[in-house]
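Hey, can you fold this one?
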Amino acid sequence: MVGLMKKSNTPKAKTQKTTTQTGPKKSKKSKTGSIPKSTPSKSEKPSSPKKKNWKKWILYGIPILIILALVATLIVVLTLEKFGEDKEEVEVCETKECIMLADHLHNWKDDSVDPCQDFFKYSCGKYNEHNVIEGPQMTKKTRITEKLIKEFLKKNESSNSKTENAMKHLFRTCEESNDESKKYVIEKERIKYIKQEAIDIGWPLADPSWSSSSFNLPEVLRKIPSILDDERSEIGYGLFKLRIPAARKVFIGATSEYFFHFDSIKKDIERELAAINNIPTSSPNEMYSDNFREINEALPIFDHLIKSLLSKGPRSWGKVKNKIYGWKNFLPQAKKIKDLVYKDKRITANYLVYKYVSNSLRWIPVSHGCDHDVIKYLPLPSIRVFVRNHFDKGGLKDVDKLVEDIRSGFIDMIEKSKWIREKTRNGAIRKAKAMKKTISYPPELEKPGALDEHFNIQLDPSDSYYITMRKIDRASMNLLLDFVSSDFSMGPQFTLEANALYAIFGNSINVLAPIMDDPLFHSSFPNYAKIAGIGFIIGHEIGHGYDIPGIFFDENGNLNPWHDKKDEPELEKKIMCLINQYNNYDDPSFGKKLNGTTTLGEMIADEIGQDVAWRTFKKLDLSQEKKIIGFEDYSIEKLYFQIGATNWCSPRSALKLDDQLKKVHPTNSFRINGLFANEKAFAETFNCPVGSPMNPVKKCTFF
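Sure. Predicted structure:
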């Protein structure tokens, strides 16, 4: 068409074309080359300026449009490529541990719930659909760890480790004792053995020739000690007890062992011992006294007993004697105990033997699983098995660094606190810097045979369950005193559970191995996930150094208040804020019937832990952090809080209210909702309206 139009407008050089005229004639082409005007034929209409423009638009516009279209396409392609490049730059953690974390975050939450109304339900509303373990993730991980130990015991493979063989021997003899076909014979032998032990101690009821002149109190007591508590840090003697917390100290205190069904003893010793133990303590300043010399003079037996429990005997005494204290006004009671036991030596001897027999009879194999016995009575060897076979040591440096980062975050919080005075500030920082740490397992015990060397237990293949338990008990007491004398590196708070612990008397924290593992932690997790997970738990344990009674103990774990008393009125206001918040919290299981006084210490530690963890989180360069699968477009701040909430996801509590009120920890629901409601950053992150449950007008903070 364009070609045809060009042809019709081209003048002929020689031919004169005649057309019918309707107007005056037009002149011919002039010499100058101009075209004379003529009347076009019917088929040739004159070209108007508009048509010429249209033709030019056709001639030049279409190519221009094509070029513009190509340019636009190129821009779109480049933009899409750039967008794709940007997408690729958002790195995602794809390890199996991160995938499991993503599964928890996606599947446990209930999207139908407004996070500003109930963050616990928003984060954990569908937890029950995916879990059967009662309790939060730490409980779940502990149960998994216990099953791994049970698997190890069931294999019954040979080992070069004395302590591992002790574990297997205890497991085997426990199962044999539960065998119905062997129970009667084993029990008969046990009773016979215990009776003979009682006679060897000196039992007036079983020995007609017994004479009070032969009664030697220190020697009788040396034969009867037993570990009493589940933490395995108390040694009972019937008349008193030794307590060795996770610190290189020994505390002597009144006993809590009573045997009320022995009438001849109940009338005298039981009643008096109960009175001794019930003397109230008005303040933390009266918890213990540096008065061992006076106590030992009042009742001169303690040096003898403690020396007998040291594996190196008198050689270690010099390291221990200055680390022994009287517990809760024990000095005046020691004098009463002396009068009591020597008033009638026969009754005292019968009582002490009866105490020994009663403690011995409690060693009965559990029917629900002998692996529980092994873990309970041999916790340190059990931890060693877990570390050796199932623990990723690659995370040790990460956790060690995390402890230091959290410590730094705590110091930053103290330095910026607006209400504490200089004395309180300096004391708190000094204590934080001096806080000792054990990450997973003491390095010195990593050496093959190191634990065997310290855990001095000699078992014979023929040893029954009872004899094995008696030997384990003695070896465990040796470990406690060896720790005090610095001959053993790990304190009595060792336990096979996913947790971290703070020792007030040693100003130290212990991050236990099982918690340094999936799903609570993994070295491949993004840093913000590590901080929201065990970072908060580490901060919580550090916070116990500043709760009640933490503020009364100095950087060495000694009873020495370091805070400015002028800060106490403000401190009391903050304490009451937390107590009232918990009292008025509407818990899904218990309603508004909780007691904030009982849980105060844990709530203070939670508040400090969350504050410190958030400060540590804010120091991260989030542009360098990997995202979690499915949360690529989700803010890392939101991820931080949601990961923190999954620590406490748990089913509805099965406890009765009376049982819950005895717990020192607040409910899991409150540990999410109550804690984050006090965090201004939470409300900002989720844009919660002022006055909503998760953004109350009044917030309870600590430092």
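The two ends are 87 Å apart (CA to CA). Let me know if you want another pass with a different chain boundary.
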